Amino acid sequence: MLSYFIPLEWKAFLRSASFGKNLVIRLLMGFFVIYMLASLLMLGVGMYFIIQKAFPGVEPLQFLNGYLVYWVLFELLMRYFMQKLPVMNIKPFLTLPVSKNKMAHYVLAKSSFSYFNFIGLFAFLPFAVVLLAKGYSALNVLAWLSALVGVTLLINYLNFIVNKSDRAFIIIAMSIASIAGLDHFGILPIAECSRAIFHSLYTKPWLAIVPWLLAAGTYCLNFNFLRGNIFLDAGLKKKTKSAETSELGWTRRFGDMAPFLQMDLRLIWRNKRTKTQVFVSLAMVLYGLIFYTSAVYEEMFAMKVFVGIFITGIFLANFGQFIPAWDSEYYSMLMAQNIPLRQYLESKYLLIAISIAFMFVISIPYVYFGWHALWINLSTAVYNLGVNIPLILFFGGFNKKRIDLTKSPLGNMQGTSAVQFLVIIPLLGAPMIIFSLVNFLVSFNAAAIVLSTIGILALFFRNFFMEKITQLYRSKKYGMIAGFKQANN
Amino acid sequence: MIQIKNLSKVYAKQKVLDVAHLEIPSGQSFGLVGNNGAGKTTLFSLLLDLIRPTTGSISNNDEVVNKSEAWKSFTSSFIDESFLIGYLTPEEYFYFIGELRGENKADVDALLAQYEDFFHGEILGQKKYLRDLSKGNQKKAGIVASFIGKPKVVILDEPFANLDPTTQIRLKQIIKKLAEDHETTVLVSSHDLMHVTDVCERIVVLNKGEVVRDIQTTPETLRELESFFSRGEFVLEKLQ
After folding, report:
1. Domain match, B173 and B92 both
2. Which of A122, A354, A472, B76 could be joined to A40 by an S-S link, Cβ 3.0–4.6 Å?
3. How far apart are CA A343 and CA A319, in angstroms?
């Protein structure tokens, strides 16, 4: 069995999309992965000493064990969103002489090598090494570590069972909240229980077998379910959601742009990647807290300008940078249709402008940190409106990479090229430099006024900019059509 | 209606299309046949200004297609599934196209009502997005969308492929009806010789990018085409 599957997996890996991408993106992704792993390793090594220093007199291993229950729940929650059993992979084997038992084992066994299973280990392994170095008993530490591997696998297989139901997510989320609450208000000593359970895995090494047995049990449950459902119309069926339609009648007030605006709203709402972006954008409004609550940035207005541009322009950057690639699947239709290109672009402009206004409104509570926060956010919003929208639309004219809307949003770099990295420099850098310069030379108020004035001036030239951008899109038309046709995964 | 002059398209030194002169009068039902790689889709893409011609030009109702965009208002087309917007329901898609072609909901609904038979109850009111429809049903939606807005020119690339027999027969009736009143110019390409000879008044055979036959359809046409495609005439031409 393995002799068939391993070479296939190897090819799948070598020929996967991430290998086909261009060098810059591969390097960046590689750098990101290494950075994450290094952070986890550092955390693992440092954890012992951090705990020792922050909570003197507490035994680090005991302390950690008290919180492992949260690790388990958080991992379940994270996997609920991100990890799915890759059942579609076995479809090509259905008509080949491979037994269904083998297929089911293959899918399940493969999932135990999923990278999710290594995230925790990258922290726990170095922690165990530190324990050994500190003179903990080798047998007990190894038993504890192997028990955690068992727990990881248990989480892995439990997730596939849980994943079948929509309610599971709510149950997990509620239990995290209630456990934290019970613990916090001292009603139930959750940390004590967690410590008792996980520490016994250390003190009684033979108990380490328990998580492995549980993992095996969930494996069998999964196997039985999967084995009975290897049919095209059962387990291997692509799930389709029934369409929810809404008239979006309120868009009528935008006149000629209404059909495009409706299309964009539906585009955003009915595709995972764009929908995720909306939520990410909304969550990013909290990003500024890092800077506003820290004394280090008290006088560093440049960073606060960065925050302002970032918060009010997050959707502008996220969504705008891939215009018009979002429409790549049917771009040739749009080009053959009776569509004035200018109107198409205007509707994108309108959508982004609305997002900037909205993000500014929900960023108003930052006024809590002083009026200057409001002024910064307002002037950056105006700057975004006047300068950055045309800028991002202009750079969009150089997009030629297809985006498949149906692909998962997780780590999806599809449609990314050097353009996306280049645009960051004028988008974020220019306002930061302008603001810092005027602030340094004149005053804070002058800087805010200059930034807003540039935005307003640019708004006066809006027509001119949009006309130029329309011309650019027109001249790039054939290249875009050809580029958007190419599958690039 | 459509005039093609010295049109050619070259990809990496390989000529995929070379049409010196071709004229399609207004109201004609025009069939394009040829084997894979003969240049049918290339010709249609050039007609819609989706690719740039290497030489020559096409004018559609006196509008040069890669100079002006005025032809777009009276030309509609369905080339393949990439002409559909996957995340819309068929109704939303039809209304969107209607909007672009200056028709309101009522107009579109009236048009759709005529194609109830053709849809066979599988398109409208299904609570499904276009991306979740079967290939055949996607095609039905795309073809009907190309009839919205009373276009003067309708371009359909391989409209019969992927359709079930009943739908194929119905589609033939629809195309015939479109061409009957000689107000709509219909351009159809196909691999199915029988279908094209059934619906088209004139048939042009493309081979390796060149026009090798240009015939008015008669009862003899199907046999002529069949013998043409089975005789291995291509091999002979290559030798010459």
Report:
1. no
2. A122
3. 18
Say if residue B57 is in the same domain as residue B87. Answer: no
- Distance from the Cα of A396 to chain B's closest Cα (Å) equals 19
**For the stretch B87-99, what's the b/e string if a residue is b when 16 or more beta carbons lie within 10 angstroms of its beta carbon?**
bbbbbbbbbbbbb
A339 and B48 in contact by Cβ < 8 A? Answer: no
Shortest distance between the Cα of A56 and any Cα of chain B, in A, equals 57
B121 and B186 inside one domain: no
B125 with B190, same domain: the answer is: no
Number of Cβ pairs < 8 A linking chain A and chain B: 82
Domain match, B183 and B207 both: yes
DSSP B166-217: HHHHHHHHHHHHHHHTT-SEEEEEES-HHHHHHH-SEEEEEETTEEEEEEE-
pTM confidence score: 0.76
pLDDT digits (tens, 9 = 90+) for B126-143: 888 898 899 899 999 999
Tens digits of residue pLDDT in A8-41: 777 777 766 555 556 666 777 778 888 888 888 8
What are the backbone dihedrals phi and psi of residue B228, each rounded to the nearest 5 degrees, phi first? -60, -45
The domain boundary residue, chosen from B102, B132, B151? B151
**Interface of chain B toward chain A, CB-CB under 8 angstroms:** 45, 48-52, 72-73, 75-77, 79, 82-89, 91-92, 96-97, 99-101, 126-129, 131-132, 149
Query: Is A259's Cβ below 8 Å from some Cβ in B?
Result: yes
